[in-house]
Design brief:
about 260 residues; Protein-Tyrosine Phosphatase, Chain A; five-stranded mixed sheet; three-stranded antiparallel sheet; 12 helices
Length: about 260
């Protein structure tokens, strides 16, 4: 069951294990590849549950101003390392990537087109690329469980997790199903409500509710657009990963040794 991957938490949305899928040479290990939204509203019980995972690395895909505005809470015994490339990943200071697209959105159709434009750019934004590189290095060089997150854990996080799946040979159908799990993982309505507050407080007051839902959800066409952009610019996803993210054949072999079990 897809929902079995989800760790039910009150103040952290979309927290789930994206391992366990069939991959090249075996199956992705469970309990070592985690993804989520930000932890700024985590409850003490949430933090205790997360602490039990034993995270060694947290990769934060947000920009500096997002971290400043919504600092993530950590358990008092957290001893892992938080990795990020300094700078902004969105063009609007203090906003998530999906929020910057809200400026000209009024309808669901507007929102869908805006998200397609966003996904074309996500693989190439310099600060985001810098954090993607740190994530790939961590997966190749560290054994402890890792967590990947942004604000909502759906776009920046979704692309990075899908890249890991693709590079490790997860079937495209499984990769897409995991990406789309964002739409139903945990208390999706609470996640949408929390995200909608951010959008409307910024520049989305006049958009309709259907548009907000598109911005706060994911769609197969979005991820397809990101992968198409990688292929168009570099010939293949593998070449993009090698040339832009530094995932050499040696690094990929190291990722497989750590993350794939027979």
């Amino acid at each position: 069951m897809a929902q079995d991957r989800v760790l039910p938490l009150e103040g952290i949305h979309n927290f789930r294990d994206y391992g366990g899928y069939a991959a090249r040479g075996g199956r992705l290990r469970k309990g070592v590849l985690w993804r989520s939204g930000q932890h700024s509203e985590a409850t003490p019980d949430d933090l205790a549950k997360v602490q039990r995972i034993g995270l060694g690395t947290v990769v934060d895909l947000r920009g500096d101003s997002e971290r400043e505005a919504n600092p993530c809470l950590r358990h008092e015994d957290f001893a892992g390392e938080v990795l990020f490339h300094p700078g902004e990943t969105a063009s609007v200071r203090g906003r998530a990537a999906h929020e910057e697209m809200a400026r000209e959105v009024r309808s669901a159709a507007d929102a869908h087109q805006a998200m397609l434009r966003l996904y074309e750019t996500l693989p190439f934004r310099p600060v985001l690329v810098g954090t993607f590189r740190l994530y790939m290095q961590a997966l190749a060089g560290r054994d402890a469980p890792s967590l990947l997150h942004c604000l909502a854990g759906k776009d920046r996080t979704g692309v990075a997790a899908a890249l890991v799946h693709h590079l490790l040979g997860v079937h495209p159908d499984d990769m897409m199903a995991d990406y789309l799990l964002t739409n139903t993982a945990g208390n999706a309505e609470a996640r949408i409500e929390a995200g909608a507050r951010h959008v409307r407080e910024g520049f989305g007051r006049s958009m309709d509710d259907a548009a907000v839902r598109v911005l706060m959800g994911v769609d197969a066409a979005f991820l397809d657009r990101a992968f198409a952009a990688m292929i168009e610019s570099h010939g293949s996803v593998e070449d993009y990963a090698r040339d832009v993210l530094g995932v050499t054949p040696q690094a990929l072999e190291a990722m497989e040794r750590r993350l794939v079990e027979a």
